[in-house]
Amino acid sequence: MTRFGIEEEFLLVDRSTLVPLAMADGTRERLAPEGGGRILPEFLTSQFECVTDPLSSMTDAAAQLRNLRAALAAHAAPLDAVIAASGTPFNTTGRATISASPHYDRVSAQLGAIARGHEVNGLHVHVEVADAEERVRALNRLRGWLPVLLALTGNSPFAEGAATGFASWRSILIRRLPATWTPPWFHDLTDYEGQVDRLIALSAIPERSSLSWAARLSDRFPTVESRVCDAQLSIDDTLFAAALTRAIVVADDGPASAAPVEQIDAGLWVAARHGMAATITDPTTGETTDAWAATHRLLEVVRHALEQLGDAEFVTAHIDRLRREGTGAERQLRAHAHDGLRGLRRLHLAGSDTGEFTGDFAAEPATEPAAGSTEDSATRSAEEE
């Protein structure tokens, strides 16, 4: 069974305003979740990164993700804070603090003023591929499907307290970085390494780990790493993205898209703007089609891989669920339209619990108990495990 790993990024935000909260040095390093996985510092002092162990099944992944999210929620509760499972925060002070480390110092020096506004959370999926040349071929397969993956997982519709009109505002912010969005098509491993080395020689990136392509080869592990997805609202959303990504990587009879970078980049922009209402390119035919049709074409291509991995039923059911309830961006917009910040807060709290999303905002109470009350404490305990 092909192993995979998941990296989820989250922001600690104020419970009332949903504005990111900076954490003191050493705070994140002290979090030690039970049941596997790690919680690590990220680029900003308001961010966490949750990293699973190498896993073989979505069942094991679900257990680790649940424990990691529950540990974050338990940390946030006494701070009167919430863990935001969104690609960008709803609002911000514009005074983000960068974590202290030699690596982040180099990145910050490289990015200048961009670094101060780089409040973005992604979902990264690593898929293990033992042979280095096969990793390059898998990367070539994955690149053509990046717009479809982004359309399905856009989850950052807000910035500075207002709707942006984009399903994935995170993707637009990331576009400002050097060596980002679509990777080139590579002939082989030598070609891949040569192109990355040239970017370093140009000082476009300080080191290999700063490469911001939406898919790349890991510099530390024998994996293909997808970085196109926003952080996801629920555990099921995350597992869906991981299962679909793994299937693309292992489906060695799937097409390797040699489409020009600018064509796939255009698809990523449209997917970031319109989500599942986007018109994108089907990498198997080169023709434009709607995102839902491209999704079903992707399912046809990876069906055998999904069945071998035991993920076919889950992936199919989740696509049906996305049709009914919407992507993360659509759910966030609906929650905010229904009940403002309280609606968004409940959505994020639900993501720290079971990861399940009901889609029924009408069932939510009209008011919330005061913070610190008995009712509020009981609600938090039930919501945040």
Automatic annotation (TrEMBL):
ATP-dependent carboxylate-amine ligase which exhibits weak glutamate--cysteine ligase activity. It comes from Microbacterium galbinum. It comes from the Bacteria. Coiled coil: none annotated. It is an enzyme of class 6 (ligase). Belongs to the glutamate--cysteine ligase type 2 family. YbdK subfamily. Residues 354-385 are annotated as: Disordered. The keyword Nucleotidyltransferase does not apply. Keywords: ATP-binding, Ligase, Nucleotide-binding. Its EC number is 6.3.2.2. One of its GO terms (molecular function) is ligase activity. This is Putative glutamate--cysteine ligase 2. It catalyses: L-cysteine + L-glutamate + ATP = gamma-L-glutamyl-L-cysteine + ADP + phosphate + H(+). Pfam families: GCS2.
